[in-house]
Each structure stands twice: as structure tokens, then as C-alpha cells.
Amino acid sequence: LTEKPWMFQFVWRRDKHRIKEKCFRSRLSSSLDEALQKWSKLRRKYGIEVFQAHLMASVNVVRQQRTEADMRAAQILQQLGDASPSTEEVLSVLTLWGFGQNHARLNVLPEGQEWVHSDTMGLCRRRGPRETAMQLSRGTRVFANFVRLLCKWRKAQSLPDGSLLPPCTTLTINRGYAARRHRDAFNAGPSLLMAFGSFSGGRLRYWRHDSGRGCVDDLSSEDCELLDVTEGPAAFDGTRAHEVEPFLVVHGNDRYSIVFWTTCGHDRVAPADEAFLHDLGFEMPTEESLAAACQRYCLRRIVDPKLARKGTGKAPKCKIVGECSPGVRCFQVCTFPNLGLQLLRGYFYAEDELRRRCEGCPKRLAKLDSCLLNPSLFRECNPLDDAAATEGGNEDAGNHECLRAASPSHGFSEKKK
Predict the structure, then answer these.
(1) Are 224 and 276 in contact (CB under 8 A)?
(2) Which residue in 1, 204, 220, 227 has the fewest CB atoms around it within 10 Å?
(3) Mean pLDDT of all residues belonging to the chain
(4) What is the pLDDT of residues 269-283, one digit of tens each?
């Protein structure tokens, strides 16, 4: 067989906003010298060497600053021994940390900004197969002392009401921006937030009674609570609307904040990564700790039948979503069917509610019909029928909590009955 001649081409990609990729290509050529000449012209035309030099310089500066922060954290940990770091020591390390330009946090970007200073450490969701989607962030292992210091500081904190701190698998550090109103999408439990620095304002506006549906901009500012996160940490449900009020920096310092939270899918973490997170000081959630934290703070409560009313001999509480009454077809979610309907495992959904969430899409409706026939995904069962079949049907009637869909009669999309 006759071998084909080699073809040469130079390609340079610049991913500026992580949404649209800008790509420069030279023309294909069978001569390497000719390809080099074409690439040299293209590079001079678009100033690619300037872009590359600026990019490498900024990356090196950020990495050097993070290395200095990690070394300073190691010194503090060595000096403290078993003692806990103070807020001033944590702030001194945060000021050394090099923040990159994060273009991915689109839901918190203030108006007019294209990026924010925000980094995430610990367990993160990555694209790919479901079995390997949960991995450690890139800097978690490299700057382990920095992460260990923040986790050690967290363990020494206490909430104003004296309740236990919620578990966490991940932490996010922010600098110098007021997050706009948003809801967190991948939280599996309550979040713990505290702010550092010399500034005025910067409190957290929190809509405690937000239903979790609808546009966040439609919420009234009069319904929010103001949480002062400078005096001590505050726990809140990230799936409900929240934002940071504008702040004014004093004495040339900046506003820093740390958020400890639990990511969805934490049960799929690799054993080696879970052991490393334990070594760093993260409090990995258990069924008991996560259920207790969600019951206190979260809109989406996790109810384990083995834990609810244990030893009382009464039926556990169950969640029913949609208009449900005895005789209505209901389905319990056994495993996530990947329908994009925002279903929660273990909850009971009325059939009409499931079809309403399909929004009339024929493909979704057809896939829903096939999934409802799969007993490993859905289990047809109406808990109200089971309650009516017990003694009088009234003793356990209060153990079922109904979440109704939005209607003109009330402003919440899911409301307790």
C-alpha cells in the first residue's frame, strides 16, 4: 500500500469564557517549512504570542500565590498543634491565596461582570459517566494544608442556637463580589457561611420560606431575612433564594467568604477520595447526620423510614407531591430515572404531577410511560390508601406530608397541607 503524505497544521485554542471557544488554524500543508511560515503570519496577525505570554504569566502568578498561602497554612498548623486556628489566622491565609477568574459560576455573576473570584475545594461533580462523576477538585491535593486549615477552623465554630454543624463535603471561597440572587442546584443539605475582612454591609439576604420554584427575581425583598455572617457562621438552605447585599470595603481590605456545603452524589465518591477528605477534616455525611440537618434547615428534607419515629410503632412521615387523595395513582421514586423532572428519591408523586412536569413534551411523556412500568425506577403505591386501611384511617393520617403544585390560590409551588 502506498503511504499517504504527511500534512501539517497548527491550531491554537483560546477558551475565554468557557462557553464559546476561539480557535486559530493555519492552512493544511504537505511541507513543514511552509506550514511554519503560514503559522508565523497567522500568529503575528492575531497577536497570539501576546495572548499566550499574558496567559502564562497570570497562571504562574496565581500558582505562586496559592503556594505561599499553602506554606503559610502549614506553618500555622505546625504552631497550633491540637489547638484551633483563629479568625485572624484564617484571614491572613485567605489574603495570600491567589484567586483565578472563574467564568463558570453564571448563577452568581453580578450584573455587568463576566467572571468572579471564586474557587472550590473538596468533592466536585465533573462531566462523564455517573460512576466517576464525583471527584476531588484539582487543587485539593496540591494545596492540602490550605484546605486542612479551613476545615480545622470550621470544627471549632458553633451556631447561635447551639445546634450541631451540618456535614460538608466541599468548600467554596469567594473574594470581592456580592453574589446576585440565586438558588444552588446541587446541594444535598444545608450550607455554612461566614465572611471575613473589614467592610460594611455584605450581609446575606435569605428567603427562608422560598418554595424553590419560579423566578428568583419575582420574590419580594420584604420577605427576606438578613443574616449577619461577620460575627459568626450561619446555616441556611442553599436551594432557597439568597443573595449578598452590596458592601463597602474599609481600610483597603477585601471581603472574603467561605461556604461549607454537601454536594449531591457524595455517596458515589471513591473510597480513596473519601479517606483523603476525612484526613483533610471534612465531615462526610451519614444518613443520620444529613437527615437531621435537612430536617432543621432544608426545603428538601431527607426522610429515612428506618430513622423516622424509630421505636414508636407509628408509621413514618412520607412526602407526597401533587394533588393526591385515596384512590389516586401515585408512584414512589426508587432510583433516579434521569427524566429531567427534578424528582427526589423516596418521594411519592401523583401521576398527574409527573405528567405536568413533562410540560407536554411527547418524548418526555413517552419515556415517562416506559419508566413507570419499570419497578426498579418507580413503585406504584398510594400511602393515603395504606393509611385509610389502618385503624380508622385517622391515627396515622398526620404522618403524611403533602406537597402541592403551584396554583393561583397560594404563592408557593410546594406547600404543606
Answers:
(1) no
(2) 1
(3) 79
(4) 999 999 999 999 999
Could you report the per-residue pLDDT of 324-356, keeping only the tens digit for each?
566 678 888 887 777 778 788 778 888 888 888
Sign of CA dihedral 301, 307, 311, 317: positive
Residues 6+ away with beta carbon under 8 Å from 356: 322, 405
Residues 6+ apart with CB under 8 A from 35: 8, 9, 10, 26, 27, 28, 29
Strand-pairing partners, residue 380, are 331
Tell me if residue 257 falls in helix, strand or coil: strand
Which residues have C-beta within 8 Å of that of residue 389, sequence separation ≥ 6? none
Q: Which residues pair with 242 in a beta bridge?
A: 182, 206
In the chain, what's the furthest Cα-to-Cα distance?
90
Per the CB < 8 A criterion, the answer to whether 24 and 12 are in contact is: yes
Compute the distance between CA of residue 132 and CA of residue 402 in angstroms, rounded to an integer.
Answer: 35
pTM flag (> 0.70): no
Pairwise CA distance, residues 247 & 256, whole Å:
12
Residue 134 in grid coordinates: 464525583
Residues 6 or more apart from 388 whose CB is under 8 A from it? 326
Torsion sign across C-alpha atoms 103, 108, 113, 119: negative
Q: Across 53-106, where does the E strand assignment appear?
A: 101-102
The position carrying cell 398527574 is: 352
Let me know: does 69 contact 148? Beta carbons within 8 Å.
no
- Helix/strand/coil for 385: helix
CA distance 149 to 139: 14
Sign of CA dihedral 112, 115, 120, 126: positive
Kindly state the DSSP code that residue 140 receives in the 8-state scheme.
Answer: H
Choose among 379, 399, 394: nearest CA to 316.
399
- Of how many residues is the chain composed? 417
Coil, helix or strand at residue 21? strand
Helix, strand, or coil (residue 122): strand
Kindly state the cell numbers that stand for 88: 485572624
Beta strand residue intervals within 16-115, DSSP E = 21-25, 101-102
What does the pLDDT read at residue 53? 53
Alpha carbon distance 287, 309 (integer Å): 15
